[in-house]
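sry for the spam today, last one i promise. struct tokens for design, 275 residues
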């Protein structure tokens, strides 16, 4: 039932997310070097031999930078659409496999389903990974919250959710106007406020972890996004993914969450001991 998840890196300098069970795992994007991927997984105690496939969301460099070397070294199938592949690395054609939005792909006992999203790329997709009844989604590089995002977000026990920019920092920052408009124009990235609205309006009662991802170095900060989400977190653990290093490995286990809530409801009150 359990899934193990971590962000190996998250930001415009490189994105790579790990989701797996005890025997099989997948990487969503490969935007850091093969060497860094290996090094970070080793430090986390994750066996790279458990990775059975890489799924690519879109062709931007921060999502495919390390793909060719990693895929070729470990002979990993790369699930990528033809439109994305046309603008991506050409050294993976012998490993490339296509996917269709809404049609699950089995990788061992994992089921990976892609869904289309709004982003300024050739054919962008996000992914939800299922293992029995446990579901984890990677939702970054979102121009806006569409019906597809809402549909899959509601199913999640954990989610890597983009919180790219603070609106005031972007508006008053040094970026030229055309770049500001690209980021906030519905085909770019999701703001802190938009991510929070999705979280507060559509989260399931069993959402245990939100890993806020793809934070802008220039237009956001850990402090801003933490203070924004903290008052609304309740029992959901809020984690900020770094653009410089990995997060902890988190165990996503719906049964543990259920047992925890049951214990909270039925635990008998204990007497206070005075010292």
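last one done:
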């Amino acid at each position: 039932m359990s899934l193990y998840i971590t962000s190996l890196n998250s930001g415009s300098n490189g994105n790579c997310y790990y989701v797996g069970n005890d025997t099989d795992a997948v990487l969503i994007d490969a935007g850091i070097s093969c060497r860094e991927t290996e090094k970070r997984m080793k430090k986390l105690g994750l066996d790279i031999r458990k990775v059975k496939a890489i799924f690519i969301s879109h062709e931007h460099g921060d999502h495919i930078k390390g793909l060719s070397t990693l895929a070729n070294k470990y002979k990993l199938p790369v699930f990528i659409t033809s439109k994305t592949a046309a603008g991506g690395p050409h050294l993976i054609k012998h490993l490339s496999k296509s996917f269709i939005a809404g049609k699950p792909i089995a990788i061992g006992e994992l089921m990976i389903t892609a869904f289309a999203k709004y982003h300024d790329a050739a054919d962008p997709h996000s992914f939800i990974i299922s293992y029995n009844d446990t579901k984890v989604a990677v939702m970054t590089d979102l121009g806006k919250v569409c019906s597809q995002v809402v549909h899959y977000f509601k199913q999640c026990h954990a989610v890597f959710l983009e919180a790219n920019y603070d609106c005031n920092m972007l508006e008053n920052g040094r970026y030229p106007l055309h770049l500001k408009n690209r980021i906030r124009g519905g085909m770019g990235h999701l703001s802190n406020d938009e991510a929070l609205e999705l979280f507060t309006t559509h989260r399931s009662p069993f959402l245990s972890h939100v890993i806020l991802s793809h934070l802008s170095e220039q237009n956001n900060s850990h402090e801003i996004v933490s203070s924004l989400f903290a008052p609304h977190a309740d029992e959901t653990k809020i984690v900020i993914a770094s653009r410089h290093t990995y997060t902890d490995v988190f165990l996503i286990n719906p049964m543990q969450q259920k047992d925890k809530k049951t214990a909270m409801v039925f635990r008998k009150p204990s007497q206070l001991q005075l010292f």
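Confidence is low (pLDDT under 50) at residues 260-275. ok im logging off now
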